[in-house]
Amino acid sequence: MDKKQMLGFGLIMAFLALWLYMNQPSEAEKLAIQKKRDSLANIEAIQDSPEATQQNVITNNNATTGNVDSINQQYLAQSFGVFAPAAVGEQSTYTIENDLMTITFSSKGGRIIDVLLKDYSKVEEAEDKSEIKLPLKLLEDEKDKFEYLFKVNNLEISTQDLYFDVEQQGSTILFTIQTSNGGSITQKYSVNSNSYQIDYEVNWNNIPNIKGDHVTLNWLTYLDKLEKNTTFEKTYSTLHYKEMGERPTYASYTRDDDDNVENPIKWVSHSNQFFNSTLIADQAFEAGELSVQSFDDNNSDLKKIQSQLALPSANTHLFKMKMYFGPNDYEILKDMGHDLEDIIPFGWSIFGTINRQIIRPLFNFLAGLIGSKGLAILILTLLVKMALFPITYKMLYSQAKTQALKPRMDKMKEKFKNDPKKQQVETMKLYQEYGVNPVGGCLPMLLQMPIWFALYRFFPAAIEFRQAKFWWATDLSSYDPFFILPFDLPLIGGHISLFTILYTISMIGYTYYNSKMMEGASTGNEEMMKMMKIMQYAMPFMFFFFFNKYAAGLTAYLFFSNMTTIFQTVITKNVIIDHDKINADLEAYKKKPKKKSKFRERLDEALKEQQRQQELKNKSSK
Q1: Of the chain's two ends, which shows fewer C-beta atoms within 10 Å, N or C?
Q2: Of 325, 345, 365, which residue constitutes the final position of a domain?
Q3: Range with the lowest mean pLDDT among 346-355, 366-375, 559-568?
Q4: Structure pTM?
Q5: Which helix (H) or strand (E) holds 579?
Q6: Beta partners for residue 243, in sequence order
Q7: Are residues 45 and 63 in the same domain?
Q8: Domain of residue 328, CATH code
Q9: DSSP three-state, residue 340
Q10: How many other C-beta atoms are found inside a 10 Å radius of the C-beta of residue 153?
């Protein structure tokens, strides 16, 4: 060690010694510490001494215990004030059940610590990818909180630190704490029969010195992983709430989020993909600080959701609300009112409307009629394709007209094979001359997009598909692991979904058939056409990676839809459409006098200008 290192080490030791000297306890603090140690040592000596008489043990123990109790009482009085009598006790649990759920309550905090839903099961995936079904519980995490926070005489009080007296009568349970000045806090829960609802009220009596404008309800929930596909479940789990006079809204599904709501709040919901825990105020919460925090995949919990809700006033002795702990069932939530059905993530705007008003009722009717969710998807697919067939027919007819121009296009290409610019100009003229719209086949596809996007949101959100079996799929709301891999692959995971494979194959088959039918009909930049062809074949493989972890109900629908589309295309092009008539119509249109629209005139002028510029360029190059 050189001199600089020795000097540095010496300075560090000197500073450490100085810090220890300056932070050592005072003489009074030393005496107080020693007094407590002597008191505890005296208890141990009296209890362990074999020579002491029983009378001496009792006398000394009582004296020492009295001293410790006195210290504890002083501590409780300083920490809890008039609530000191309720700050000590023993935690006990109580249960109330109906046909649908079993609720477990705790005397500490007077709160619900467990809700078992009898008709549903939690699903976990074992190491060998087999499914394990377990009882499904909400609010069961030990880290959860349901507490009232307020100040009395500058003391911060949490009801979750207090022990309540309990009185249970049938489906009603009453929790009460008494203060040292004759006041009380009561919480009353009444469980409704054959329902997921609980009537709840909290009452403050004779507690006049509460500081601040309001009492805060701190509701903290650690969402448990209830589904096999936890990655997907996380995407559809978040916090929902409704401000008075407004439509319901929600925190972010995909990232951590905080909302500071200053307006009155009617209800707040902590929601998993298919289940929710909701508080609905009879009046309204005055304001709220709401937050969502996501955990990584290795965490045992899915998300942490917290709602800090301000009760209207500390002087309001009674506050009532309804509690709901149950499934995201559309009919149940709608019957409860207050737009609670919007908790189900069917989508907003036109997509949500299609799902709520058309797809959902139709599917439920078919499922009730047929008795199989999977066959209902098949029938739903056929009905949707039949409803969209007029649009599909227009698309195929437009493609047939474009294909009918192929011989004329080939002649034009051969004539101007060395002049690509001229080819483009003549192509547009040819389309105008025969009345063919080159994008006519695309517009009908765009008109179908709202239904496709609606179904994309419908299948993973509707609880009707949860754990519904169909063929090899054990859960239509999750992926169907037909092939189990010995290891996880990026983007794919540890399984291959068979419905996704069938959908991919059907998509490649349709692309091949369609490209053969349209081969040579398209014009324009050849390199661009090659790139488009590559993209057409690349898209099915991209969709495979995307849908391999998606709901089997959707991939089954996509497979059925592709097969129906192929069937419709083959029958329409080869049976329904009269190709001779198309050629006759094209020739008739060519002979018909045409009135140019303003747009067509501008387009012609642009084409002429483009042709003129090209001719000038050719001359200058010579």
Answers
A1: C
A2: 345
A3: 346-355
A4: 0.73
A5: helix 579-591
A6: 265
A7: yes
A8: 2.70.98.90
A9: helix
A10: 10
Residues 373 and 341 in one domain: no
On whether both 289 and 363 belong to a single domain, the answer is: no
Which of these, 476, 482, 497, lies nearest to 554 by C-alpha position? 476
Domain end, chosen from 345, 363, 378, is at: 345
Cβ atoms of 536 and 515 closer than 8 Å: yes
Backbone phi, psi, residue 74, to 5°: -65, -40
Confidence of residue 57 (pLDDT cuts 50, 70, 90): very low
pLDDT of residue 35 exceeding 60, the answer is: no
Q: What percent of the chain has pLDDT over 90?
A: 26
The domain tally of the chain equals 3
Say yes or no: 322 and 184 in one domain. Answer: yes
Contact 285, 217 (CB under 8 A): yes
What radius of gyration, in Å, describes the C-alpha atoms of the chain? 37
Provide φ and ψ at 593, rounded to 5°.
Answer: -65, 140
Spatial separation of the C-alpha atoms in residues 484 and 506, rounded to whole Å:
22
Task: Judge whether 58 lies within some domain.
Answer: yes
Same-domain pairing of 244 and 359: no
Q: Per-residue pLDDT for 50 more than 90?
A: no
The dihedral over CA atoms of 83, 86, 91, 92, expressed in degrees to the nearest 10, equals -120
Partner residues linked to 308 by β-bridges: 218, 289
Q: How confident is the model at residue 23 (pLDDT cuts 50, 70, 90)?
A: low
CA distance 578 to 397: 10
**Residue pLDDT, tens place only, 242-256:** 999 889 999 988 889
Q: Is 568 helix (H, G, I), strand (E, B) or coil?
A: helix
Establish if 200 belongs to a structural domain.
yes
Assess whether 61 and 177 both reside in one domain.
Answer: no
Q: How many alpha carbons fall within 13 Å on the CB side of residue 305?
A: 24
Residue range(s) defining the domain that contains residue 60: 27-88
| Residue ranges with strand state E in 153-264 | 155-158, 165-169, 172-178, 184-191, 197-205, 210-224, 238-243, 249-250, 257-261
Domain identity same for 522 and 390? yes
User: In the prediction, which pLDDT does 162 show?
Assistant: 92
Alpha-carbon span 248 to 262, nearest angstrom: 15
The three-class DSSP label of residue 603 is: helix
Distance CA 263, CA 260 (A): 9
Residue 319 is which amino acid?
Answer: F
Residues forming beta bridges with residue 242, ordered by sequence position: 267
Cα(98)–Cα(104) distance, integer angstroms? 12
DSSP 518-561: TTTT--S-HHHHHHHHHHHHHHHHHHHHHHTTS-HHHHHHHHHH
Q: Which DSSP string do the residues of 276-301 spell out, in sequence order? A: EEEEEEEEEESEEEEEEEE--TTSSE
Segments of 295-417 assigned E as strands: 301-310, 318-327
Residues 518-540, mean pLDDT to the nearest whole number: 61
- 98-122: per-residue pLDDT in tens? 999 999 999 999 999 999 999 999 9
Sequence-distant (6+) residues with CB within 8 A of 569 are 396, 510, 513, 514
User: Tokens at residue 437, please?
Assistant: 């719209």
**Are 472 and 457 found together in one domain?**
yes
Residue pair 234/274 in contact by the 8 Å Cβ criterion? no
Asked whether residue 578 is domain-assigned, the answer is: yes
CA distances 543 to 452, 465, 499, 509, 569, Å, are: 14, 22, 12, 14, 22
CA–CA separation, 344 and 463 (whole Å): 9
